Give the backbone structure.
Amino acid sequence: MAETGIALPPSLIRLSRLVGEPLGGPPTPVTILGEALVTLALRRHQVGPLLYAAALSGRHPVMPDLLQKLTQSYRASAARRETSLARLAQIAAQFAAHGIDWMALKGATQAARLYADPAWRFSADIDLLVAPRDFRRALDVLHGAGFVASDPPMPPVRALWGPLLRAVRDVTLIARDDPTCAIDLHSRLFVAKGDFDAALRGSVAPGKAPAIGPELGFYLIAHGALSGWVRLKWLVDLVPLFARLSGADRLAVLEHARRARAENSVAASLLLLRALFPFVALDGLTTWLEDMTSKSAVQSRLRRYVRMLSLDDDQRGSPLSDALVNLESNWLLFEAPSARAHLLISAPASSAMRRFGRALNRTDRALRLPPDLHAVSPIQRRTP
């Protein structure tokens, strides 16, 4: 990573180059797909299906048992996609019956828009966005459809649901008939309020997914930055996305970043993306990126992302499992004083209400499965 002076683990560089091949990247030198590299792809970064696609080229030696694991990861991803689409069809019918508009974020719908083979993108849960006015009704509908709120659990006294839902922006629900199936129901995208959240939410319509455009580009960058880019999977999404954006769209991503006062985090994210995937299409942004590289705020964020991405365990000390680290990530992303003021008010209240829900209803909180090679526990993150 010569342009920044920050070193990434060689194993991560090898993995990124390999999974970049199916996405249009240049052929990498012949690389042995050993157990450590396969495990890194499967367990740590959730890019096993893409590494499987690279293995199919036949250029990279791999032992039969490891190829079998990669094959299983691809098949599990394809099966999970079919299950998610079937769940979405059921939810669509339920929401339509109650007049609830909704949007599918990330997951199976996004994979179909970005990847030549949607099964290349492993999805752990289903993200749905509804208008704040429909948040409570959508939760009721999902409860009736066999899902149970788990993060936070809903208090047994339904009169307490209102205060809790006003304090949090999302609720994770688990299917009672399949605890590996999780839904993240969002009333807004970010803890800190801003014009961008309202702009994307304004396009919510039954079953609609965000179009391939600058709004989706900024959202995926902001989502990844809030996670500290702790998984390669989220960074990989930007490769096919930027390949589909026009020069004007890429500049519009930058304009969204400026309006949200998130230029430093967006610049650091794109520098990390370019370091791991040098072929990524960033035309139109290169001059701006060069100007931003020397900024101390950009460098500090970039070091943070490299540290998170290099963790042996993506749950240890990351924003996925630590509320204080998550709060810090939000603070670093949104630098506008109004956004930070809202964050200081809303984040503590949200965390307090989540703890309140867990204290009142421990039974539903216990609904979980441990992660394994091909299935990821739906209850992983702890957001304010």
